[in-house]
Structure formats: C-alpha cells, structure tokens
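Input:
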Amino acid sequence: MARSCRRGISLIEIMLATLIMAFAMFPIAGMMGYGIKGNQKDFRGIQAIQLAEAKLNKIMVLDFAQLPDGSEITADITSGPQVLVPLGSETVGQDIFGVVLTSELVNSAFDYYYVDLNNTNPTPYVATQPSSWFFRAAGAPLSLTGTDRRLRRLRLRVEWREPWGVVRNVELTTYKADLRD
Amino acid sequence: MRTSRNGMALVIVLVLCTALLSVGLWFISGFRHRTAINPAVFERIQMDFFAQGILQAAMLKFKKMPSEFYYAFRARSINPAYLDLYLCKNSGSKDVPLLTGTMTLPSGSFVGKPVTVTYSTDFDLVYNQLYNQDGIVIRVNIQSGGRSRQVSHTINVSRHRL
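Output:
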C-alpha cells in the first residue's frame, strides 16, 4: 500500500511539473518572439542607416553642378542617360525603402579681418614683417546670398514601413560647396 | 532510499524552468544592447558627414579669402588670435554655418532624438619656399554625446605673384 501510494504521488508530480513547465514556456516563448521582432526592426534600421550612408557618399563625390535643387526629391540624379545616384524606392533584401533628398542653396556669410596696407601707426606696413601688420575687422562679413550662394545643404532621408504599419525614417545632413572658379 | 527521491521531478522541472528563464533573459538583454548601439552608429555617421560639410564651408571661405588666411597664418606667431579670428573662434561670428559652433541636426524617427554637435575648425599650412605649391590642411573636430571625431582634408594650392 505504501509503495503504490508513493508511485501515485510521483505520477502526479510529473503531471504537475509538465503543467508548470508548459505555463513557464508561454512567457519565455513570448520573450523570444519579442526579441526576434526587435531584431528584425533593428536590422531594418541598420539597413536604412547603411543605405543613407552609401547614397550620401555617392552624392558628395558628385560635381556641384550635378546636384539637383529642390525639396523631397525622389527622381534619380542623372547625367544624360546615365544614372549617377538612384533615389526613390529601393529594395534591400525583403524590405522596401524610400530615399528622399532635399537639396537647397543656403546663404553664407564669412567674417574676416584684413591687413590695413595704408596703416602707419605705430609702424608702416612691411610685407615681410608680420609685426608691422595692422589687422582691422571688416565692416561687414563677406555675404554669399541670392545668386551668389555657393553652399548647398543636403538632407537625405531614408524611410520604411514596419510590418505593423508604423513609418520610420533616418535623416543625414551635410553641406557641399561650389569650389569652381 | 526510494523515499529520498520523492519530489525530485518538481526539483528538476524548477531547475529547467530557471535555466530557460536565464536563456530568455540573456536573449532579451542582448537585444537591449543592440538597440542602444544603433543610435550610436547613426550618431557617428552623422558626425562624419556634418564634419565633411563644415570642411566644404571652410574650403569655400579659403577659396573666397585666401590672402586673409595667409596673413592670419603668418601673423599667428605674433598673436595666435589672428588665426582664431579667421576661423571665427570669437563669439558673435557671422559665419553661417559657423566654422566653430554648435548645431542640432534632425535624425529621424528611428533614432528618436536629434543629434547636437559641437565643432571647431583648424587650418594648417604645409609649405616650402622653394616651390609655389602649398598644402592647406583643414581639420574639423566634432563632439557629440561624449564622442569625438576628427575629419581632416588637405588641399593643394598654388601661389601666383599678382
């Protein structure tokens, strides 16, 4: 009687243990699923960052004259029939990304000091003697505005849609100067 | 002997559950670390691109005002402030974008918060009096969120007597 009673307890223990284990598996499986979703979300983010970096690197090596002007540009940057930098929709792996460029001329204004060649106080200007140079602040900065603008702000945005509908994006900013004579 | 094995199944299951929980926590903690790295990677890339942009602005200033730079560079031994003036390290500078300053840049919804960068520019001159070619080294030092980067670029310039 005592032996059979102990066997019965052992079976109940195993059933109970299996039940506990089954219940324990639910949150663990949930955590695993959450982790996998998070990894996929991260992976899309890394892909977007790498795509933005690659596109902006290509744009930075273009001549200033080849850069388009405007906001929310999704048309490819071309030179004749040749596509220099593809913009717009791009598929990487199984995900679709949108590449959008905003390229606009911005004003520049450079402060400067000039050497007064006509200064005689305390000593007259001598080209080979920096101690004789008298620096004066320019009355107004050198302004590059309107048609003289030579600096372009480039903002590249890569956007994508998560499977649950949320639209995410990354955005990089830089400048490109017109250094032509 | 048999009675001492009573309750062993429960113990084994609890041990297994603990082990599974540990694996789950390890997995989640790894995921948490990865999400923290992504914004840092983005910030580094944004810092590099912005520094390249400031290099462009610095080259534009040199292109427009080379003689002012040469005067300031040669006079720096007498007063280093002259070169700082050229680089707009004085407060109230009108340079836009500044060769030295702080700027907040949008980063997009994935990263969440904008990237605030603090940066400064330095010029150096590598010259040889025997030749009429100079090398102008432009360095942009940039800091953001405790990280710092330096981007430098050397351009060749020719001297011509006017």
